[in-house]
Amino acid sequence: MTKPDLTFPSKAAYPVGKQFFPKQRQRAVRFILFLGVISLFADMTYEAARGINGPYLDILGASATVVGVFSGLGELIGYGLRLFSGYISDRSHRYWLMMYLGYGINLISVPLLAWVGHWQWAVVLILAERAGKAIRNPTRDAMLSYAASATGLGWGFGLHELMDQLGATIGPLLMSFVLWWKAGDYHEAYLILFIPTGIALLVLLMAHLTFPHPHELEVKRVNLDARQRFAPGFALYTLAAMCLAAGYADFPLMAYHFKQHQLLADAWIPVLYAMAMLTEGLTSLWLGRLFDRWGITVLIGITFATLLFPALVFLLPMPWILLGVFCWGLGMGAQNSVLKAAVAQLIPQQKRATAFGLFDTLFGIAWFAGSGLMGYLYDRSIALLVGFSMVLQIATILLWVFYLRKYVWNRSQS
């Protein structure tokens, strides 16, 4: 008996979902929509805060190095803890408990920023928010993969990402309005985020009651070997993703740059972030469909398209900054939809939360190291920061091309 093909392109292993029974697909889409609504209001909460955290830390007296280091540390926690939370989910099968715990910590930490008076306490809450996301994300992505198997993995993850980014767009716009209305009152801006927090937790309860066993949504299409933890080339794929993470500047550092050089008024910085989030959401569904057809080649094309964003954002004035933020949002859309769809395709169901956790941990370590270094470079030379970011993105492209040559193109010719 021949082994199943676990490599790209994804179309071979996970064909587009309309081949399956309408009722099965409808239930899967309903579940994806439930998760999407939860993410919409969750992102409205914490992405609203991420759009103003950089300037807020500046007001509280933090330096660029502090912003860069703790932004990276937040991502390290937000990704690093997923290895353990994903493993615990797979071992205990208490998927909904992990969702309640993760979303609770993730969301409630954000509006509490309204009452901090020192940057050290603000950093603690920012890190707590990232920790909560780490607890629930591997479980949520595993649940999402079960349903997306009936719709096409790229399409399913893309639809979820679209709804996710609608919230990430509305939240920063809400912050911009509050800062304008209240003349820069950050206390009021953070306080209003209790509203989407409550809605997200309520919809989470409704999803649990409607779909108590989401693993039953998965369509069995490929007999993946349950004893095999990684597909061929998974380590190389992950290494390329780590290079991408290390060289991708985080928005708090970009926002810090805008305020330091007085490129934008405070109220307009979250508007720029909202534009990036809208770009991320609107392109994710399209990118997901392209992934279902062409596999990892889509990631190479998007990385080429976003290669110049650091120079546009950090070295040039308006309107080049707008183009740079658009490119940044396009790249984030690929990272949060296509990158995850590939992982879901390569791992059997019973180990998928663990796999998402491991991948995210390594991704987060790279993000932390890169963010900390870019914050350090910013204090010394913005040109060095830009060069560092672009070199690592080029390295990402080369590694993915090498992956395709070794595991896809050569196999298709044999």
From TrEMBL:
Membrane-spanning ranges: 28-47, 59-79, 100-122, 189-209, 230-248, 268-287, 294-314, 320-343, 355-376, 382-404
UniProt keyword terms in alphabetical order: Cell membrane, Membrane, Transmembrane, Transmembrane helix
GO MF entries: transmembrane transporter activity
Keyword Transmembrane assigned: yes
Lineage: superkingdom: Bacteria
Subcellular location: Cell membrane
Gene3D superfamilies: MFS general substrate transporter like domains (1.20.1250.20)
All residue ranges annotated as the Major facilitator superfamily (MFS) profile domain in the record: 29-407
SUPFAM superfamilies: MFS general substrate transporter
Principal place of residence: membrane
Topological relation to the membrane, as annotated: Multi-pass membrane protein
Pfam families in UniProt: MFS_1
PROSITE patterns: MFS
One of the record's GO cellular component terms: plasma membrane
Name of the protein in question: MFS transporter
